[in-house]
């Protein structure tokens, strides 16, 4: 409950706020005012349940304040604290519905008792409202969403044990304080490229369908089914009184295996599940949830349509480099533009990268290294990754979303085939996008002292390669091309009437004499001889 103190006597102010143990009784002082006007402002800004009000105050007295509160904030309950034992004050207080009328100097115990009685009255009123039919209907409507929030917060480890018990009772969820629990997480397996009935846009619908099937299949089971933030379906199983621990584990395994089979039969797509270890306390459930999540990610190793149990931490392999021979084969296959050799090299790479002994973090690191090397290779060839890869570039930047060996292979082969197709198309068109980017940068930066090395760094390509490519595409070296572009721009500006010194600066020359010699070498006349 939130309490507002309205009192202009500093000594009484201090005694009430500092020497009464409000927090022990669930009372929080949310504000202190010295007159009625300040009090009205605070009530308008904060949630206030109870007010202690002095009668005699400057600007607005306590009874006038009480009248205003009754008009605008009917839910607030008030206690009068007065230094005047006058009948008319007490009578007015009764008319205003004041909960209690205390005479100064009231003892701390009296003030506390008056507030606690008021709190009890408020709680009784709230309970009565809660039990009304309209509230019951609203509660029933919002209950599934509130339960889902509770379960998500529980598995996220946001509750202490007493909070879990308290909130579960509020939400009418049956929990065993000394029971056994186990968490399982179900997720749809990635759609293959051959899947024609569904696309990635249908994934949310399929995830929702899995949740609905899970609720229906496990309706009679001792468990709670809910959706987690990633869209996956989570199940918290609880042991019944008639089960021992082995029987409980067997039931969980059987239920999940049967559920995966029904999902496949109904949706014609597969799902997989991760199963955490047994939780012996309510506060251990988040650990079981994390274990289930980690187990689910092991699909990278074990494939699709499988229930994976959490296992103990395994020893790390600690290798962070990709196998050199396999990478060399892949680079050669790309240079040969051979699809069959690309597939063969990918298979060899994945056989080294995806091993049961590796943790999911190590596999993801290997995939990250692989994607980084491929992007570097593309840039070295003068290819813009976004243009070549399209939507698949997303997985280069978010490789943790690749959750199975099959999906990694499909993504890798698809991306590499896109590179081969792009290279072939470039050969046919005879145009290099990288050269176009260089030409555009030259046009935009004629006022600077351009260098090929600077441009190569900005485009993330090798300078020597860019030099050869530029000469091949334009028929002249980079430096010669830049000089001609600068002199063309200079001639244009001089014909417009600009001064020689200004023109030199606008095309990146600090030394005007050197600019004049270069201009004369290209055009056969000095800049000063050009007239607009």
Could you outline the blueprint of secondary structure elements for this entry?
Layout: E1 2-6, H1 10-18, E2 28-33, H2 36-45, E3 50-54, H3 62-72, E4 77-82, H4 87-95, E5 100-103, H5 108-130, H6 133-155, H7 161-170, E6 181-188, H8 203-217, E7 223-227, E8 233-238, H9 245-267, E9 271-275, H10 285-297, H11 299-302, E10 307-309, H12 324-336, H13 339-353, H14 360-380, H15 385-389, H16 393-397, H17 405-429, H18 433-444, H19 452-459, H20 463-474, H21 478-495, H22 500-506, H23 512-523
Helix pairs in contact: 2-3, 8-9, 12-13, 13-17, 21-23
Organism: Paenibacillus oryzisoli
GO molecular function, one term: DNA-binding transcription factor activity
Keywords: Cytoplasm, DNA-binding, Phosphoprotein, Transcription, Transcription regulation, Two-component regulatory system
Can you tell me the CATH architecture of the largest domain? Answer: 2-Layer Sandwich
Query: Which class of the largest domain in CATH terms?
Result: Alpha Beta
Number of H- or I-type helical stretches: 23
Q: What is the radius of gyration?
A: 38 Å
Strand content: 5-15%
- Could you tell me the CATH topology label of the largest domain: Alpha-Beta Plaits
What overall form do the CA principal axes indicate?
flat
Can you tell me the residue ranges where pLDDT is under 50 for at least 5 consecutive residues?
314-320
Number of strands: 10
CATH superfamily of the largest domain: Reverse transcriptase/Diguanylate cyclase domain
- What's the main sheet like? 5 strands, parallel
Subcellular location: Cytoplasm
Domain Response regulatory: 2-119
Keywords: Cytoplasm, DNA-binding, Phosphoprotein, Transcription, Transcription regulation, Two-component regulatory system
Protein name: DNA-binding response regulator
